[in-house]
UniProtKB/TrEMBL annotation:
Organismal lineage: Bacteria, Pseudomonadati, Thermodesulfobacteriota, Desulfovibrionia, Desulfovibrionales
Keyword Signal attributed: yes
Signal peptide coordinates: 1-35
Keywords attached to this entry: Signal
The name this protein goes by in its record: Lipoprotein
Keyword Signal: yes
């Protein structure tokens, strides 16, 4: 998701006083704010599971077939213990995790620019004020992880399928800050944030993420579809 921006242009009532106004407010002609809103913790952070009316062997074959046909990299298929591990790297992290939202705005003279976006979106550009200086950010986010599918035999030839996942979100920033008539560029990175289907995570700056369980639900639905 890209940041949305809005531009507002307002002319002063006394246009003839414009030079005087600019001189008087030069020190404060650019201002802005940045707000990070953390995500709401999910009510249920337990692993997702379903029961199917098929034996573990048929369910295992359906699981391997489904994951192989999607963008998963099968790393371990333990047939004896009926555990399957598969790595993934989605193009859009915000479909699988919730890291809250960001709102920022800057105003130069009578032009105001506003930005509102999901904090887990893969690529975004926005502006804010850092140290009372106009600062432009270009932020990328990459999500990697490993899905685990556990098959548990039940009575009457049924099988319980439990899906869980571990996640790692890595963010990088290109920071451009205005100094006099020049723009100074700095490359910044944050330590990867790691969490699982059953936990969230928060870094030292208060940035927080939780799983949406969309991945786990999609895997279970895909396996069921293969069996039906």
């Amino acid at each position: 998701m890209r940041a949305t921006s809005r531009y507002n242009h307002k002319l002063p009532a006394a246009f003839g006083l414009l030079p005087l106004v600019l001189v008087c407010v030069c020190a404060s002609c650019t201002r802005g704010a940045y707000t990070y809103t953390p995500p709401v913790p999910p009510v249920d952070l337990s692993p997702r599971s379903i029961v199917v009316a098929h034996g573990p062997d048929a369910t295992l074959e359906a699981t391997v077939a489904y994951l192989s046909g999607k963008s998963y990299d099968l790393s371990i298929v333990a047939r004896d213990s009926r555990v399957i591990h598969a790595s993934f790297t989605p193009a859009q992290p915000d479909a699988l995790i919730d890291c809250g939202s960001v709102q920022s705005w800057v105003q130069e003279y009578w032009t105001r620019r506003e930005y509102d976006f999901k904090a887990s979106t893969s690529h975004v550009k926005y502006e804010t004020m850092d140290d009372k200086k106009l600062t432009r950010y270009e932020r990328t986010a990459q999500l990697t992880g490993k899905a685990t599918v556990l098959l548990t035999p039940l009575e009457d030839g049924r099988t319980r399928i439990t899906a869980s996942a571990s996640y790692q979100l890595t963010r990088a920033f290109v920071r451009r800050q205005q100094k006099d008539s020049e723009w100074l560029t700095t490359l910044l990175s944050q330590a990867p944030l790691e969490f699982t289907s059953s936990t969230g995570a928060k870094d030292i700056l208060g940035f927080q993420c939780f799983p949406t369980h969309a991945l786990e639900s999609e895997i279970l639905a895909g396996i069921r579809a293969r069996l039906d």
